[in-house]
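REVIEWER CHECKLIST
Item 1: Sequence provided? yes
Item 2: Single chain? yes
Item 3: Sequence as submitted:
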Amino acid sequence: MPRENLVGQTIAGYALQSEVGEGGTSAVFRAHHNDHGIVAVKVLREKLRQDRTAVARFLREARYGERVQHPNVVRTIEIGEAGPGMHFLAIEWASGELLEKYAKRLGALPVDEVCAIVKQIADAVQAAHAAGIVHRDLKPDNVMYDPATRQVKLLDFGIATDTDIAPEQRLTRAGFFVGTLMYVAPEALSGELVGPLADQYSLATIAYFLLTGCLPFPAKTPREMFSQLLSQPPIPLSQAKPGLRFSSAVEAVIMRALSKEPPKRYLDVVAFAAEFCRAADEPAEKEKTGLGAKLASMFRSKKS
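Item 4: Structure as written out by the authors:
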């Protein structure tokens, strides 16, 4: 069955100019609207328009995005149905590029830039948590970033969930985890509903990746990643890549947020981001070696 081509068509007043992204359930287009200007429009795929679960997921994502109002979250403009089953979601057009592409292109980013990014993501996620929503899929590929302004916009509430959702309202079967394995919190692997602290773990993984260009686990296959997430500690930040060193304060903050046990993490994502930025602002530690170490030792001996 040939894939539906919507480029050049106008739906509900949105002139679809080009396809800029795609997923398993929908396609995303750059579009123009006479009142809203340039926007992004997500359209449910034709093959899923009679699938009640797929439609429910699409509408749930749209409503979650509508509930979370924050400068660092893409603004929802309109939710509608342009024809039988042709559900669409129009959101603001965020400038910049996907954080994933930016980070892979530049490699390890400066600590101060990572701090600016992490703080904005944390603020956006905290707004979701305040609205009773856990994102569950925080990753660089779900963040738009404009390097010129260092502005962040959080995208995609496709697998988000309410913190108080009833079991019978779940769209994911119990025992099946959702999220992206490289960024998911260990507690999510059981398939049970996770809380806001799972988003903190994912954000800490993003910070680790931006600082080092690596992930906290060296797994080469999904099976290895699954096993390491459950049974092994993450590689310490300063050991992630040869030649990269971080202050003990920065490393301690990241590694605490990557604790396998949720209660050992920070109280919330904003607390984690604040501690990370505070540590990032501290002067780098100077290791005492050689003559400097000997002089320091002699000085301590004289004082004692």
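Item 5: Key structural point noted by reviewer: Helices lie at 52-67, 99-106, 111-130, 196-212, 222-231, 248-257, 269-281, 290-303.
Item 6: Recommendation: ____
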